[in-house]
Design goal:
The chain is an alpha/beta fold. It has one domain: UDP-N-acetylmuramoyl-L-alanine:D-glutamate ligase (3-Layer(aba) Sandwich). The chain is about 35% helix and about 20% strand. The strands form two sheets. Strands 1, 4, 5, 6, 9, 10, 11, 12, 13 and 14 form a ten-stranded mixed β-sheet that branches. Strands 3-2-7-8 form a four-stranded mixed β-sheet. Strand 13 and strand 14 form a beta hairpin. Helix 1 packs across helix 8 and helix 6 crosses helix 7. The chain starts with a strand and ends with a helix.
Length: about 325
Amino acid sequence: MAYDLITMGRIGVDLYPLQTGVPLPQVTSFGKFLGGSATNVAVAAARLGRRTAVITRTGDDPFGTYLHEALKGFGVDDRWVTPVPGLPTPVTFCEVFPPDDFPLYFYRQPKAPDLEIDAHELDLDAIREARVFWVTGTGLSEEPSRTATLAALAHRARSGTTVFDLDWRPMFWTEPDAARPFYQEALRHTTVAVGNLDEVEVATGVREPHAAARALLDAGVELAVVKQGPKGVLAVHRDGVTAEVPPLPVNVLNGLGAGDAFGGCLVHGLLAGWDLEKTMRHANAAGAIVASRLECSSAMPTADEIEAAVTVGAVQ
C-alpha cells in the first residue's frame, strides 16, 4: 500500500531548555526530543492519521537508536533511516525567549549524516507511488544529498503531490545566490512550494508576498504557500484561487516546530481534498498550537485539537 506521505531530509536530537527566558549558559536542564524539519512533518501528519515514512540518515550511535525508537513511537515508518558509520547524530540546542526569539545552535560537524543520503540507495518506486512526497532546501545544500534529492524529484516526475519546503538555513550555505540555482531546479519538479518571506526571496529573488507567489508559480509549481509571520499565510493556486488567512491568537511559548505542524496539516488537508481556505485555516491552527507548547515533535496536535482551535478562533 502506498504511503500517504514520504518526507526526505533532516533528522536529529533537539535539546530544549526546560527553563524559558534563561540564556543558554545559565540553563541547568534540558528535554530531549526528536527533531529535524522533514521528520517533524512526517510526525505531524502521522498524528493526523496518515501513513508516513521518512528518508534520512543518523549516526551509528545511541542518539541514532533513540531517533529510531522515537519514530516508531510516533507511528512513522523508519525503514529508510540508515546509519552512517563515523558521523555523529546531529544535536540542536535552542534558547527560548518568548514570544519571538528562539535562537538555534546546530551541531552537525564534521557533516550531518542526513546529507549523506545517496541516490543509489533510494526506493524510487515507493517515492513515485507515495500520495505526497516532501523535500527540503537543506537537502540541496551538500552532496550527495543534493543529487539524491533532485534524482528523487526527477523520478517522481510530479506524480501525485510533490512539496518543496524551501527551508532556508543560511548556516548551511555560503550565500543565498549559491542556493538559488538548485532551488530553481527543484521547483521544476514540484507541485507545491512552501516558505516564509526569507525563503521565498532566496528561491525567487522576490520578497513581496503576492509577487513571490507569482514567481513560484512561474517557476513551475501549482500551489504557492507564503508564510508571512504575524500577517498570516498567503496561498495562491495556478487556477486563480487565492486564500489569505490571518494567524490565530496564541500565547507563544516556543515558535520552533510551528512550521512543521503547519506542513503536516497542509499535507492532511491536501490529501483530504479540502478547499484552499479550509486547508490554510487548519494548518495555521496546527502551527499555533505547537507554538503554545515547549516541544516540537511530541507537541504535534490531533485533528480534534486543531478543529477546536479553528472553531474557537484561538488556541486555548
